[in-house]
Amino acid sequence: MTNRKPEPFAVKIMLSLEAHSRAKELLSLQYNARKAKEVYLNYLAVYATDRYLRRQGFETNLDVGDRSDPVKQTLMNVADLDVKDCGKLECLPVMPDADIVRIPPEVWEERIGYVAVRLDESLREATLLGFVQKADREELPLEELQSLEDLSGYLNENRNRRVEVAASIVNLSQWLVGTFEPTWQAVESIWQEAVRQAPKNNLAFRFRRKTNFDTSFESGLVRRGKAIELGAVSIIIILGLNLDSVNVQSSFQDGLEELENGQEDFEIDIILEVHPGAGQKNLPRNLEIFLLDEEGEVAMETKAKQDYRDIQLEFSAYSGDRFSVRLTLDSHSVTEEFFI
What we know:
The protein is of the alpha+beta class.
């Protein structure tokens, strides 16, 4: 038997008959003995983690996740637990005499952390040993785990971060019914402000041709703008939604009612414009613009060259889509996130 160092902080959880009953139900769906054992132990680790987190005041959901899908359970080694407003934790069973925890490669992503749970030989008791935030190898020595005492604080930080991100995401569906975030202004207003801030002797900027700033519904285009700072450089980004491309022919008050109530699935054409800000005639050379999909992968990209006055990207998106626009200049970067 391996001599183990005593865990500095650990929590014991009794594994109830209810836990074993549910584990047997999941086991019965498997035809391979090795996979059946894996599923059984995984569920006990999830159950123990779930009970601990509930004691700490977190809301969890035992009925959702990859491990609840029989197909994924068969094809992958998964033991995820959904923690409300935080994300997914992977619950990793540790055998009684083991001094390492195994982390399957298929769960190295889409997890906010990994909890090591030691199961005793009788499977009547589980001990939560600690956790790690990220995984990049299949075997991790138990001595490298963070203390379980830090888990609640880490989850609360993660929850606060997710709330902040959610609050900063721009809901473009609301634009279609006339509701806008305060930081996204009418294009006329943001342009007037940029002109006001421009040096009075910068005639090239102050009288630069820019005529079509109508943001009314009658024009068929809803447009809002925002000034952002990349270091000492000001950039204006404008996002336009083409109402004529939406398969809903209606007026502002009546015809967009289905969109307002979230009852309509639709596709819409979107125009992204990037303009130089106050006091600048052209976009800064080497300004990079990226359109990112929901997974953060680059869908479109372009780069400003010498004497570029503006850049425009056109694309389409469906209701329910999320995407981001990232502007990068030298070591400075700003990302704006959108949801439809």
